[in-house]
Amino acid sequence: MRWQASSMRKDDWMMLLTRNETEPFADETLSLPLVSLVDELADVEAPTIFQVLFQRKPDWSPTAESRKLDLRNQTDTLMDKAVDAVFKDTRTLAEKEQHLSDGATQRLEELSTKNPRRTFTVNLRAVAVPTIDADEQPVDAQLDDLMTVFDSIGGEFYEVERERLRANRHRESSKRKHALAVFDQLLDRELVTGRGRTTPDFVCNSRELAPFITIPSGNTLSVEGSRRTRSEQESRSSLPLPHHDHMESLREGMAIGHAVDENGTPEDDPVCIPTSSLVTHYLRAATTGGGKSKALLNDILSASATTDGPVIVLDHKGDGLAENYMRAHGRRFGMDDLEENVLHFTVPDILPGFSFFDLRADLSRGVRRTDAVKRKADQYKQILELVMGKDLFRRAATSPILIESLIKTLFDEEYGRENGSYRESEDYFGHEQLEHASDQLTAAGPPEPNEEALPKTTDVAARRELRRKVNTDAKTFSTILTGLNNRLAYVSQDANLRRIFNNTAQQLDFREILDSNQVILFDLGGLSDEAAKLLTGLILAMLEDALRTHEGDLTQRPDDYVVNLMIDEAASVAASDVLNNMLEKGRSFRLSVGLAMQFPEQMQAEGGRRLYLNLLNNIGTLLVGKINVDRELANAMAHEELDPEAFANRIRSLPRGEWIAQLPSPTFGETGPYPFNVKPLPIPEGHPESESPLTGVEEQRFQDALKHVHERTQQEFGVPRDTSQPTATTPDELGELLDVTTDDLDVAIAKTVRSVQLRKGVREDNEWVSVETVDETLRELYERVDEEPPAYEELTEIRKRSRLLDTTVDIDADELIVKLTEAGETEAKPGTGDVRSAGGSDHDDALLEIEQALSPLGFTVSILTQDGSEKPDARATHPDLETPFAIEVETTTPEYPTKVLTNLKKAQAESAVPLFVVRTGETEAYWAERIETILSPPVRELANGETRFYTHDSPLTFNGGATEHGGVTAIRPVNGSDDSKRSVWVKDGDEIVLQNGDGTEYLRASGWGSVTKDRVPATYSYDHPVEEYLVYERGELHVYESKAALEAEWVTIKQPFIPTEELVDPTNSTDSYAIVILREDNEAVVYRDGSTKPLETILENTEQSEETPPQNWKDDSDAIVGQFISEWIVEEKGSSVPAADVYSTYESWAKQHEITPDSPSWFSRRLSNQIEFERTTERHDGEAIRCYKGISLANRSVDDEF
């Protein structure tokens, strides 16, 4: 093994290795680690060498002065230097020194004390060489003890780290090679140095070197250590017992052992910590193997038997302590009592069911909402501080403030539920809501800040803070987000902590536990150190909350009521402000805190000096085993007849398992007894190592009881296994179908509820509808877009949490029913948008009327928000129809034929059936006839047999038109003063002819592809720099200084609507679309071929993908898929192929044929129209995959020639 130097920062090797520089080491005889070393060496059952190698280090004063300057300039770290390089600090050195951090100030002080002119480079290592026939296992255990002898040495920034060399390799040969290399270094006295934060060498001044090389005197050694070193031993006798009266006052309460007289004889009756003294807390300190765990078992048993109130135990080691306690509990109190009164949280298998972000308890007690929110934010920050450390947590100064601001938005009484996702209440939420709020903040920030996208809040300070952050520059904002998300990640990136913090079911409520006599065991051994710290912080925070609520009820409690909190390995998991508060308020809370650790000074390393001193000042009972005693503890236990040095000697000479106890007086204000020796209580019966372990029958009964304990703990007090936050979101194509722009599925459900209400005729009063009907309608929509619908259980959870939906049970009908909340009605209400294409109020009224008319027929109608894209006014789907309807309300467009045809074009492009909605005109069918005339056929046929194309309002342009760079617009000459300025496009056989209103011909082309800028009469462009219009007329250039001058001589040519060029199906028979007339009596009818029919006939007569394929299969989407099927799909019973593989093959095949592929949902729909297969979900390598059962792909490559 070897001991290494560990620095907080790369250059912290310049810092002190000890914490107290006030006196020279020569005057300090309390902290000689070689005393413990010699004692431990005496126990090792193998030849062992301990070597200290040291050499004078060259003067490094210039390096020290450079470091001091960096510290004063606040550029000590790479991050500091980078920030200084970007944001130049113009302050003087003196000004900077006025604002140094505590860490920088302390580093400067330690640098001044270190004395770089006289330091040493030091190596510490030890080697044990067992004999060939020796059992190495006990030697390993003894070396583990030996490793701890320097644990008490270490400064704030520079400390000792231990390493077992064989432990850092996987292969046995590598372990041996590594150990032998260090053995050779030891034999050769080779001084090894290194670089980085952890190095094999220490840099020590003379005071720091002294503990490693000062040989202890014989009177400081244990008996065995003295014998092995042939030295003389003093102070081996036990301390004198306190006065008889004192001892008699210590006979009732929590038993801690048997007092030992000066002759070494233990008393028959155990000594106890009285109930009145328990609330002053107690500490057990002993090295590994010193008996802390077995003593803790007896503490729990005795506290459970002698006090009224719960016993709460935090076990960080996970070495079987909890189960062995329960064996002892079962033997002492009975297995039935074990089942009824013990809870065992085997984290992570059973997670404690706290609801952390929860104000319900505080609000029910009348606490002001603002105060409750502030306390919850502070608690969350304290928990993160515990695991990160205060300095690191607060380094990003904006993160704590930002976390508090986001928590305020989520608890906002007006906007809280709106800010979250699937929120049940504004009074509580899970951690995922905090992450959701962080995502909202991210989306609102640079490069295009959008304050409207921020979480909303009525808290002025929180709103101002969020606005300021999103209006910073992109780099600063990114840094802020990194700091925020790094802190949230301590919870969100740990699966177990995430489940605990996401839980909102109040399963484990300490307020209820405080009214019981239960034993609650938290077994944290299955967690990482960080996760265990964070969960410990959560447990302490929740317990402190509960203690505050019952503080006023203590007068009604019996005198022996105590809440017992016991924490094993307390230094590593409980160094927090919360623990400080609990220690200080123990008496007012009736709380007893029992801490077990290897040595108290660990608390200073983990939680700072304040916590350590608070520990010693606020703990009434000290139980100290064999440890390396530090000065503070020695002073705390010394008295007029036993000075600190003598006490330290006594502790070092203690046999393993024995304690020196210092107890307060049971009578408040009186001096307590002097310290005395205590032998441990025997291992409790039932424990496997006790003199009376469980019998075979008892063990079987215990295992049954243990199973019951775990089941009860999980079911009644654990995080529910099946109520995690819903993860289902709205698929993109379903969102497009329903006009839903958010991922939140409850919005899609709300739209579906509205549709079902319309279908059932109960929308006007927002009446209840069947949940089953809503779910089935939603699942039909999922199938339409070829997506896997969420499980019914997940839909249930979403409905339960959603602020948009109100669910209850219809007792008479024995079914679940649902309706929209006020927020749900607002969210589900259709909105047509405010862009020009959205139409006016008459247009919107017509949309609502057609929705009302179609819904009772089983249609799901989605009125779409118009945003300027190529959307229809609405979409309508029906479970019996394969193809959806694209609804276009034609209140004004019938007067403009090309607008009607453009709507037809949009519908055909998305493979929908166009449904044109009109009102009555001069006659009932006036506008319907007009629409039908435009559509069938989509050209204008004159009485003289001439066929004309309808024309767009837009001009015919090339390369973007006259105002674009390199673009031109087509024009023709003005033909006399009476020119109508019309563009008349005529179909003459296979040719396209351009005329004016008088029949003058300007262009004749064999097809639209032949109409180019060189074939039109003329073109013009606009020259922006000189503001001139340039006309190009077959070899001539005309220049005009104004638009009016241009238009006086030239007419813009309008673009024709040519069906074969613009429509997927240019034939467009009356069966390929539908027209609905909205009568004035609110009855809607279908119009076709000059007559009207009831609206329900729309389900019978409209073509649904049954058109005869054209000769060229590439011109028809269904024929394209048919061609793909003939080449690539094999119908094969029993076969199965992933849907993604089929679509990927289709995409590659379409690319080969220069065809634009359908979307996955449309491809799947067309595929199912032409061949039979079953859609299934299968597991491939543990992952759920959507598959087509009954078909397979042909055994060929898409790169083959077709």
From TrEMBL:
Domain spans labelled Helicase HerA central: 269-542
Segments forming a coiled coil: none
SUPFAM superfamilies per UniProt: P-loop containing nucleoside triphosphate hydrolases
Pfam families on file: DUF87
Region (Disordered), start-end ranges: 220-244
Protein name: Helicase HerA central domain-containing protein
Transmembrane segments: none
InterPro entries named in the record: HerA_central (IPR002789), P-loop_NTPase (IPR027417), T4SS_component (IPR051162)
Superkingdom of the organism of origin: Archaea
Basic and acidic residues bias: start-end ranges: 225-235
